[in-house]
Amino acid sequence: MTDTPTVTTPDASAAPHRDATALDRMEDHIGRAAASLSLVRVGGVVTQVTPAYVQVSGLSRRLKLGDRLSFETGPTLQLGEVVRIDGAGATIKPFDVNLKIGPGEIAWQHSDQSLRPDVSWKGRVLNALGAPIDGLGPLAEGARAYAFDAEPPSALNRDRVREPLRSGVRVIDLFTPLCAGQRIGIFAGSGVGKSTLLSMLARSQGFDTVVLALVGERGREVREFLEDALAQNRARAVTVVSTSDESPMMRRLAPKTALAVAEFFRDRGESVLLIVDSVTRFAHATREVALAAGEAPVARGYTPSVFSELPKLLERAGPGLEGTGSITGVFSVLVDGDDHNDPIADSIRGTLDGHIVLDRKIADQGRYPAVNVLTSVSRLANAVWSEEQRKLVMMLRAMIAHFEDTRDLRLMGGYQKGADPELDKAIDIVPKLYESMKQTMFDPQSTDPFQEIARALSEPKEDPNAGQAAPPG
């Protein structure tokens, strides 16, 4: 048998009920042969090409949603994914925005939809398809294949989240502490220090491996993040990059590729930190793909499949089966117009194990990380705090709330010291607390936030008249 394409006709694939004609028998025979012989390749015919998708006929009976097809365009193999199947054929969304094909060309069925991660991938940079883009040569393949769209571990067989860990970021370890295997979101508008906070978390020494997915980032920022933010920690990190100019298929795939890599290291028993920046751009890409497939929008232009894809992605992070490692997921969420109740932010917040809110007003005051401790929550904090620590944090939260609620009153001069002892105490403590929580990516990592805060709060308040000569007696 020769290595020639097998192309079925559009009419044959569209008819739901047919008599067993000679053509049918030949098609079935070829299908069985294709399953057993690698020399046989099954393909369809390109019938329509648009800026958003490619229509292929002749394969409707052999495909399912999510399958991949390949197009041989010159020396490289270009891939696309099936996003819709109907009587007219299959709708294919290409991974390459510059795919140059025309009607009549062949789209081949592509069976490989998995990665084979290896320990040697640490320190490497990949694209969303798992191909190296750092110029350091090909990647070694591991023994086990990991699917891009793998199912999360069974809920009843998963290990419990119980092991506290230190992020090294003082305000997080104090007010929203994390556990190994926890999934937390960083909710922020643009320009409030989200990337800086992520880089501080990536430097945490509480993890064996860091897997980073940069989704829809500016091309300029990728190298800066790798060389400046990761710095010496780059050797233990695997980075998956899909820049803003790439196709929505690549931007949608990048977090899934990062999760497949993270699952490999988790199964080796390692503690993995997964950072996805940002899940919002994953949602935008998923919306673009769904709209191209003809799906109707339901909420602010988002399609129903967006809200079903998000939990599938997020649930893959977390603890593995008992005896394996864990994936601690940090997912950044870019809130449009600082609206923290937009449909995507609301859906993600309800799925994760906590959320850290970055506040523009705090950033405007020069306090970084600009974490709003009053609106940030870690649902596993009680597994980390002792009873004494919990009471201290609750007291500090109450002081901050009292301090902020009366800010306008104090600025107008409407409060006299002594009128409210609790407020007097907050006025004395909260500014020192704010100052102690300031931290940059160049500062040393926090090792014991409660001791550091205790030292800062015990320092005497500076006397504004200190250093001035005493008036003559």
UniProtKB/TrEMBL annotation:
The keyword Zinc does not apply. It is an enzyme of class 7 (translocase). One of its GO terms (cellular component) is bacterial-type flagellum. Belongs to the ATPase alpha/beta chains family. Its EC number is 7.1.2.2. Pfam families: ATP-synt_ab, T3SS_ATPase_C. This is Flagellum-specific ATP synthase. GO terms for molecular function: ATP binding; ATP hydrolysis activity; protein-exporting ATPase activity; proton-transporting ATP synthase activity, rotational mechanism. One of its GO terms (biological process) is bacterial-type flagellum organization. It comes from the Bacteria. Probable catalytic subunit of a protein translocase for flagellum-specific export, or a proton translocase involved in local circuits at the flagellum. It comes from Hyphomicrobium nitrativorans NL23. PANTHER family: ATP SYNTHASE, SPI-1 TYPE 3 SECRETION SYSTEM ATPASE. The gene is fliI. Keywords: ATP synthesis, ATP-binding, Bacterial flagellum biogenesis, Bacterial flagellum protein export, Cytoplasm, Hydrogen ion transport, Hydrolase, Ion transport, Nucleotide-binding, Protein transport, Translocase, Transport. It catalyses: ATP + H2O + cellular proteinSide 1 = ADP + phosphate + cellular proteinSide 2. It is found in: Cytoplasm. Residues 180-363 form the AAA+ ATPase domain. The keyword Acyltransferase does not apply. NCBIfam families: FliI_clade3, fliI_yscN.
